[in-house]
Design goal:
The chain is of the alpha+beta class and about 450 residues long. It is built from 13 helices and 24 strands. It is globular and about 75 Å long. The two termini are about 25 Å apart. The structure holds glycyl-adenosine-5'-phosphate.
């Protein structure tokens, strides 16, 4: 392993563009800060991440249900949630030559501009929500916001879910979807974006049970990263928020942090939101949002424990964690050691040459494997070593090669990404062998 941390973010950024994972958005027009588009392999990887989250947070549990709420929300929702007043960052502007803007809490000194050394303005609170108008008349009645978190969709639908589903506290409502924040400083590639995708789950519990459930979800989510997504556990840690950094709604918050090339940073936050959100929506809407325990008839506003993470944040974490370079026969091999369930392609099927004799059997192998795995068929006919390297760079765990011997012995070669070891297996036993290797 060479050059692991030096220039790692730059290398991953370049690989993502070169190999079709991530492109700067609207690049032919110069792009727009903090916005990225996802290419074919990026899309596949994001679908896998979303799927793994949904499977473990919703499908494998019988106490969590799903929801998809709108991205646009009326001002009333964000006034009630406290976001119109509290969802702010401290902004300072350079009064010197460069006129750049910075987040005051990200600077070592708020006296001098870190870019040009000029004087900085006094910090002022900057609201990060994107505001827009719904309908043809731009009057105050039609003000709406693009959601800065998906969570409010769950709170405003709490009663709907309660009345339409057979749920009983404790239970959760989960959602995946786009969120928008006009971040003062974006950066570190897709780490901090202005448009991103969140996966959040609001877990409603009886007051008094909240601390126990908070501890439960912290452990559960930490385990998910190492056991399900394959992130190296030594690069993960938990960090409790100090009083002054907690969001306006939280009684306690713990971050799962990852050791990024730029230092430890937040991967996921797990907050104890108390009954803040249900209470404030009850007050502002005038609707009763209490829950009645069917056994004791006790009525109360449930407390909420919330694991919240960004798909883009998990994606950059997986890519950084998986990126590796090694010396092979005097050349540098770049390999993404992605977990098999996260990798965009699981098996690449390659006929050694473009000759018709090989294409038939190769297509047959592709058809069989496609029923079980995400398969890419690569018939480009170039040097097989180069084709293996291309698959290494996108993190494909196995390549299956069909060569001229296949026509004689009805066997193919399985080549493994990490060790580069090859084994010959009969076509009839290929699926079983791959199942064993993937296990
Ligand atoms: N509902 C709670 C909430 O939104 P947050 O800590 O502001 O809490 C939760 O965001 C997660 O969303 C973060 O841990 C991170 O994974 C992701 N996230 C937040 N802001 C982001 C941004 N600007 N770009 C990419 N991901 C972001």
């Amino acid at each position: 392993m060479i050059g692991q941390q030096a220039g790692l973010m730059e290398k991953v950024t370049a690989l993502c563009k070169r190999r079709g994972f991530v492109y700067p958005s609207s690049e032919i027009y110069g792009g727009l800060g903090g916005l990225y588009d996802y290419g074919p392999y990026g899309v596949a990887m994001r679908r896998n991440i979303r799927g793994l989250w949904w499977r473990h947070v919703v499908d494998l549990r019988d106490d969590v249900v799903g929801l998809e709420a709108t991205i646009l929300g009326p001002e009333a929702v964000w006034a009630a949630s406290g976001h119109t007043v509290n969802f702010t960052d401290p902004l300072v502007e350079c009064r010197g030559d460069c006129k750049q803007r910075f987040r005051a809490d990200h600077l070592e000194s708020t006296e001098r501009c870190p870019a040009c050394g000029g004087p900085l303005s006094e910090p002022r609170r900057f609201n990060m929500m994107f505001k827009t108008h719904v309908g043809p008349v731009e009057d105050t009645a039609s003000i709406a916001y693009l959601r800065p978190e998906t969570a409010q969709g769950m709170f405003v639908n709490f009663k709907n879910v309660l009345n339409s589903m057979r749920v009983r506290v404790p239970f959760g409502i989960a959602q995946q979807g786009r969120s928008f924040r006009n971040e003062i400083t974006h950066g570190n590639f897709i780490f901090r974006l202005r448009e991103f995708e969140q996966m959040e789950m609001e877990f409603f519990v009886q007051p008094g049970e909240d601390e126990r459930w908070h501890a439960f979800w912290i452990e559960e989510r930490l385990r998910w990263y190492s056991e399900v997504v394959g992130i190296r556990p030594e690069r993960l840690r938990l960090r409790e928020h100090a009083d002054e950094e907690r969001a306006h709604y939280a009684k306690a918050s713990t971050d799962i942090e990852y050791e990024y090339p730029f230092g430890w940073g937040e991967l996921e936050g797990i907050a104890n939101r108390t009954d803040f959100d249900l209470r404030t929506h009850q007050e502002h809407s005038g609707q009763d949002l209490t829950y009645q325990d069917p056994e004791t008839s006790e009525r109360y506003l449930p407390y909420v424990v919330e694991p919240a993470v960004g798909v883009d944040r998990i994606m950059i974490t997986c890519l950084l964690d998986a990126y590796d370079e090694e010396e092979v026969k005097g050349e540098t091999r770049v390999v993404l050691r992605l977990h098999r369930d996260v990798a965009p392609v699981q098996v690449a099927v390659m006929p050694l040459s473009k000759k018709d004799d090989l294409i038939g059997p190769a297509r047959e192998v592709q058809r069989v494997l496609q029923a079980v795995y995400r398969v890419e068929y690569d018939q480009t006919g170039g040097n097989i070593g180069r084709r293996y390297r291309r698959q290494d760079e996108i993190g494909t765990p196995f390549c299956v090669t069909i060569d001229f011997e296949t026509l004689e012995d009805r066997a193919v070669t399985i080549r493994e990404r990490d060790s580069m070891a090859q084994e010959r297996v009969p076509v009839t036993g290929l699926l079983d062998r791959l199942r064993e290797r993937f296990a």
